Amino acid sequence: MNRIPSLDIRRFDHDRAAFVAELGAAYREWGFCGIHGHGLSPALIDGAYAAFKRFFALPLANKLHYQVPGTGGARGYTPFGIETAKDSQYPDLKEFWHIGRELPAGSKYAAVMPPNLWPSEVPEFKPFGYGLYQALDSLGDRVLSALALHIGLPEHFFADKTEFGNSILRPIHYPPITSPEIPNVRAGAHEDINLITLLVGASAAGLEVLSRSGEWVPFTAEADTIVVNIGDMLQRLTNHVYPSTTHRVVNPPGEAARQPRYSVPFFLHLNPDYLIETLPSCVDAEHPDRYPTPITANDYLMERLREIKLV
């Protein structure tokens, strides 16, 4: 079976040409790649996971205090039974929390990027949660720099297009599965909406990626590896040079199903007013523009959130 590659991002600093070529090839083939050597502190990751688990262990009444109806779960808590993968009959088996970007005072994006909520019951949630947000935002910038170089763009092409991006850190709790008759999976087959997604804690089994040949390939990364995949915004921007690959989180067999699963993806987004327009360098006679009508990042996001029943 083909294996989704994992690469050491420290090579971007001293073996740049080879690293960029290998990373680009991985994404063109899979839309996924493991990234290690990223420099994120284990204490930060472990502290964040501990805080998130403490929150999800709270009584439901406490958690519902942080649900904000009518916002599509943009900030705070979203309970079980709401998010549903596009074209899926059943909702995903998960509850989650959204941490967004802290905007400077007077930001023009305040209307579409509300302030964060923080659970008072777990005081360490904010420092660890936002600390992890910032660390993954920085790592995402490095990955995007390499991807830009691979398709002939300047290294920092994405920097001013994502500096106020509507990016989201999403701690997720998948509960124990206590009945074999449950028809839905922990997360139905889907593609991500955003530019790239960085998944912390993919060492737990369950993530599967759909290969070009139509085969579901498990991707259980080493504990220190962050899984980074292409989202639909980058697929659209690059005219499918970088494909957004279908993936899912399946229910484990046997006794493993009776254990909860936690994961923390970071969805890296464009600035809300950025106009997603196919890059000219990704269009030629053999690859005509698939998306001749541009759309702003925020309009595209809202369109997709309606599809998965979050708004």
Q: What structural keywords apply?
A:
about 300 residues; alpha+beta; nine-stranded mixed beta sheet; four-stranded antiparallel beta sheet; 8 helices; 15 strands; about 30% helix; about 20% strand
Structural description of this entry:
- This protein is an alpha+beta fold.
- A hairpin with a 5-residue loop joins strand 9 and strand 10.
- It starts with 5 loop residues before the first strand and ends with a helix.
- It contains eight helices and 15 strands.
- Helices cover 28% and strands 19% of the residues.
Summarize the model shown.
The chain is globular. It has 311 residues and is an alpha+beta fold.
